[in-house]
Amino acid sequence: MSAVIIKAEHVSKHYRLGKLGSGRLREDVVTWIKRKPVADEINNNSKQEIWALRDVSFNVEQGEVLGFIGNNGAGKSTLLKIISRITLPTLGCVYGKGRIASLLEIGTGFHIELTGRENIYLNGNILGMNKKEITSRLAEIIEFSGVERFIDTPVKRYSSGMYMRLAFAVAAHLDPEILIVDEVLAVGDAEFQRKCLGKMKEVSAQQGKTVLFVSHNMQALKNLCNRCIALDHGKIVDEGKPENVIANYLKGQQNNFTHQSYDAPEAAPGNNYIRIKKAELVADYLDGFDVIDIRTPLNIHVEFWYQDVEPGDLIVGIQLFNFAGDCIFDICSERKKFENGLIEMNCHVPGNFLNDGSYYVSVSFVKNTTQRIFYFDACLSFEVEDYRKDTAWFGKWIGYVRPSFPVIVKPKQ
Amino acid sequence: MGNNVEWDWKIDHKISLFNWNLKEIWQYKDLLMRFVRRDLIANYQQTILGPFWILLQPILTTITYYIIFGRIAKISTEGIPPLLFYLPGIITWSYFSDCLNSTMYTFLQNSTLFSKAYFPRLIVPLSNVVSHTVRMLVQLTLFIVIYVVYVLINHSAHISPAIILLPFVLVLTAAFALGTGLLISVITARYRDLDYALQFILRLFMFATPVIYPASIVPAQLKTLFWLNPLTPAIETFRTAFFSTNNLEIQPLLIATLLTIIILIAGMAFFKKLETKLMDII
Fold it and tell me: Residue A352: is it exposed, middle or buried by C-beta count within 10 angstroms (0-12/13-18/19+)?
């Protein structure tokens, strides 16, 4: 067993929300003058208090890559901020060994008026490197960033892609014993993300660094982590092998959630372009069955209000994921011009196609082939039961899909 | 519970008032100098006159003061040529107010940075003081050049032994600004509406400081209070150093030093105590 490098004991974080302290001296003085009896005040405040973390304890071993998953507000980022010493725990403590570098944002402290080179130093210093360390890695950082030609140009003239590549290049060359990474992979294009993931894999696997990692990208978590911790409402609810924790987490997220509909656009999920009226999964059950099994044809039906200021060509895409986060398919409609109004989308998934398991559907809306205007993430979910005839084999049938392409065996003539 | 292991660090909610961890600040000296560099480059890179602004500012202020307070209000300059009389006051005052102004908004102006990266927060106000020191030294050089030219032409000014105290009074000015700024910074982080009041008080404070008039014209009944302002002995020592017009006032200087040390320690202690806690508010 390797040595424990971080030990968190009963870490709790308490936030007061709302009107406790208005941020204005005048109002605070007025409140204080008109203050209520003490008992009353405690009563009032208790409603506005939340425990962002509650009694969280765990160990991290040297060289381990530990992933954290959980919904927004589950406490993942708060936990990383406490370990990064940005905010204090209300109770409990964290012990550790070695230098920590926290990557909570790409390009922290970048100054747009300064050149790329100046910003490498600035960002590097902020992340905890000293001048000598940066100078010794400068050539490597510049090469990795791919912006050699513009390294002495102020970064305000950079494209957003160049800016991010440069920022990540600095972060990738940090040399701490412990690296903390929060959701930084959520930005950037696919190419950029692949580069980041590759580098992180290298850092953890080859250099033996300890990494604490928060991401919503289940694929990345599965690829990188040795272990995962799932948080919910500030508590650890699950811990163990990434595949299991992720599967449990996703399963708990939504179980057979096959219908959602909204009466008015104002209350519906969406944004200024798209509002969802309805999303449903309709199964064409086979005679005598009322569960979805591998033979059942499925229909995905979505209705939405399109309300773009400048309506353009629309493409609606459907992504089907299994609960391990693997994408089973990613298909889309043909490009077509629509006026504002109510639009419906239908997709038929034939029977004898999916393997048994749990699945969820995400729907994306793309304008003029490049601009993703809305992503309706995990809007439907369902389980596909197994069905077997004429077999005595009851183990798990492997494979992402289970089509019934004929496999013909006969005596050779 | 495994506490026999040697840990390098420990994070909990207890923060002591006087554990300033100066060693850590020293470890981050590269970051401090980087911030100074950033401020100096970014501030003057896109302006037409660039770094000349550092010099232009005190010159223009001096001219304005000369016209208003010297010519129109006819306030005495103790026989010192107006340009050379106003400059020490202006240089010292703007050094003080620049340091104070940048320090007291430390949390407000750096909230994004502070919420994304860890480093000793004191690095930010310290770097501000260093970059204003650079500006002040440039202005001081300007003053010395003008002074030398004046002496060559007029032969009438005498440098007094008080000149050896000049670096000290400038450090005193910075320390006073830093201490006050640190104390105020933990308040502005919480109460943003203090801004107007603070700027108003700062302006009044300038008139309580011998920037545009000599200390000698202050009425006797206000003298004690007047000399309690640490900037009064600072500016007066500066003038005495170059013109020997007045005797060096040692006692107020000692009181100012003591006051400044107390304010600085209090400022550091409160800043250190609250620097991380404030992150939940801003």
Answer: middle
pLDDT digits (tens, 9 = 90+) for A144-198: 888 899 999 999 899 878 888 898 888 888 888 888 988 766 555 667 777 777 8
Chain-chain contact of A93 with B276 (C-beta, under 8 angstroms): no
Those residues whose C-beta lies under 8 Å from the C-beta of residue A353, and which sit 6 or more positions away, are A401, A402, A403
Q: What is the pLDDT of residue A236?
A: 93
Q: Are strands A4-16 and A91-96 parallel, antiparallel or unpaired?
A: antiparallel
How many Å lie between the alpha carbon of A222 and the closest alpha carbon of chain B?
26
Chain B residues in contact with A30 by the CB 8 A cut-off are none
DSSP B100: H
**ipTM of this complex:** 0.86
Position A2 pLDDT exceeds 70: no
Helices (H) and strands (E) in chain A, counts: 9, 18
Residue-range domain boundaries for chain A: 4-252, 259-384
What are the tokens at A366?
């793309």
Q: In what order do the strands lie in the sheet with A298-306?
A: A259-261, A274-283, A298-306, A341-349
Q: Is the pLDDT of residue A104 over 70?
A: yes
* H or E element that contains B112: helix B111-116
| CATH topology assigned to domain A4-252 | Rossmann fold (3.40.50)
Q: How confident is the model at residue A38 (pLDDT cuts 50, 70, 90)?
A: very low
Give the C-alpha separation, A167 to A175, whole Å: 15
> Taking Cα atoms as reference points, which of B275, B232, B274, B271 lies closest to residue B251?
B232
Nearest by Cα to A115 from A80, A72, A145, A83: A145
CB contact under 8 A, B1 and A90: no
CATH number of A259-384: 2.70.50.60
Q: What is the pLDDT of residues A328-360, one digit of tens each?
A: 999 999 999 999 999 999 999 999 999 988 888
